[in-house]
Structures are given as C-alpha cells and as structure tokens.
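User: Predict the structure for this protein chain, please.
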Amino acid sequence: PIRKGCRTLVTQKWFDNVIIFVILVSSLCLAIDNPLDQPRVEPDGWAKHQAELDDPGDWETPTKASILYVLDVGASIIFMIELVTKVIAFGFLFNGPESYLRSGWNQMDFVIVAISIVDLSS
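Assistant: Here is the predicted structure, written as structure tokens:
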C-alpha cells in the first residue's frame, strides 16, 4: 500500500511541477548568493554586529546569507523527500527497468542530493 501510494504521488503532474518550482527557486537563490556578503555566522575577528543590544529582547535582522541558508535547507529537504518517495515507488536499483537509478535524470538527482547532504552536514 505504501509503494502504491508513493507511485501514485510521483506520477502526478503537479508533483513534477512542484519539484520544478523548487528547482527554479533554488537556482535563483544560487544566482543571488555572493561569497563576499557577510557570512551567516560571524567568524572570530569579524566586525561586531552589534556591540551592545539596547534591549535583550531585540531581534537581529536576518542577513541575506541566513535567509538563503534557510531556503537552501528547505529545498534540500524537499529534494530528499522526492528521492525517498521515488525510491519507495520504483525501487532503488534492482527492481526492474523503472528502478530509481536506472534513469539518467534520477542518477543526477541522487548525486546532487548526496552532495547537498554532505554540504549541510558540514
């Protein structure tokens, strides 16, 4: 029942459209990102963000890098869910000609998701 439900989900046109939308948003974030921007986490020696908070309850304004990081994590989670759902639906490699890794696009997706997991874990 789970495999059949996953197969029904991943063969829906809207599922592909959602994934394409997330790919476009992720690509836009990569285009916006600039390595010269202030980093998400300030390293030692970086000019102090705020010397003293006027009020301990003040919230820091999120930096562009922190917003892009959150979007990157969200996209990566969606891509991981897509991978797992397709593996459940079609099998990983030895489940016939429709197996996940028998498709060139899915091989590329697998490598990108694996790299994303390594990047997020560092």
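The two ends are 37 Å apart (CA to CA).
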